[in-house]
C-alpha cells in the first residue's frame, strides 16, 4: 500500500495458464510442443504459473471510484516491473487507469542471456524466440481475461473501503518499444480490447534490428561468426521467416481491415519519435501504412522526408473511426542516418515520446472516447528534453 504519491496499491500475483512449451523456464532448447507431423497444431502440455503486476492509482482509491483497465506492454529485455516508472505512475493517477502487466516471454529480461548464448553458438536454436513469444502472447491475452473477471474485480485486494475500483467494461492496451511492436500482434488477436496505443513500434524485426542500438552487441557477435556482409542480411531474412509467426508483419492486415475469425476489428494510434535510436521511425511508418492509418497534414517530417501512402487530414479533424500515426520531434536532436545504422545513442529519443503531455492527452481521449485529435494543434515539437 501507498507505493508512491501516485500509486495507492501494487499487487503482485500469479496466474495459472495453459502451457504449450516443452519447459517452463527459458533456455536455448525451448520449443512449442506440436502434434507429430503437424507443426501448426500446438499441444496442451499442462499448466504453469506466471507472475503479473497490477497498480492502482491514488486518485481512484481516494475517490472510491472505478477506472478502466489499461494493459501495459513493456520494452525489449525488460519485465512487467516497467510499470513502476514514475511517468507511468503519474499518468495512471492523472487519468485513473488501473494498469496490469505481464512479462513478454521470449524477449523479456529472463530470455536475454539465453539469446546471447544462441547467437554466439548455434543459430539453429533461434526458434526458441518465436516459440516463447507464442506462450508470452497467450499469457498477455489471458491476463486481461483475469483482471476483468468478476472474481478479480470483486476481490478485496482491488477494493478500497469496500468499493471496487475496476470497471471491467473498460479495457485498453498501451505498450512502448517491444510493447508497441508485439502489442500490434496483441491488437490483432484480442477479443477483449477494442482500442490500443502503440508507442514507438515498428515492423518487421529484420528492418528494425540493424537500425537499433539495442542490437549492437548481438550484431557484433554475429559479425564475429559471419564475416561476410552479404551473409548477415541473409541470416536476418531467414530468421524473419520464423519470427513472422509473432512479428507484426504477419498480423498487420488483421488489426482492422481483415479481422481474424470471431475477432472484432480494432483501432490503434501509433506514436513515434524522430531520432529514436532503438526503434527506427521507418518501422513505424511501415506498420501504420499497412493498417491504413491516417496522418495529420502538419505531421513532422524527419530529415525533410517526403511521406507517402497516408491519407492526410487537417489539424482540426477529430477522427471517430480508423487509425492514426503521429510523430514527435525534439529540440536539439539531429536527424537520424538515412542508411541502415542506428542514430547516436547520446541523443536517443526512444523514451521521450511517451513522456510528452500531448501524447498522453491524445492517448487518454482516444482510449476513453474513441476520438483521435491533434493534441499538438500542429506539428508535435517538444522543447529541449535532453
SS strand fraction: 15-25%
Based on CA inertia axes, which overall geometry fits?
Answer: globular
Helix and strand succession?
A: EEEEHEHEHHHEEEHEHHHEHEEEHE
- What structural category arises from helix and sheet content? alpha/beta
Number of strands: 15
| Tally of separate helices | 11
Distance between the termini: 33 Å
Runs in which pLDDT lies below 50 for 5 or more consecutive residues are none
The helix content is 25-40%
Overall average residue pLDDT: 96
The Cα radius of gyration reads 21 Å
The major pleated sheet works out as: 11 strands, mixed
Description:
- Helix content is 29%, strand content 22%.
- The protein has eleven helices and 15 strands.
- The strands form three sheets. Strands 1, 4, 5, 6, 9, 10, 11, 12, 13, 14 and 15 form an eleven-stranded mixed β-sheet that branches. The chain has a two-stranded antiparallel ribbon with strand order 2-3.
- The chain starts with 6 loop residues before the first strand and ends with a strand.
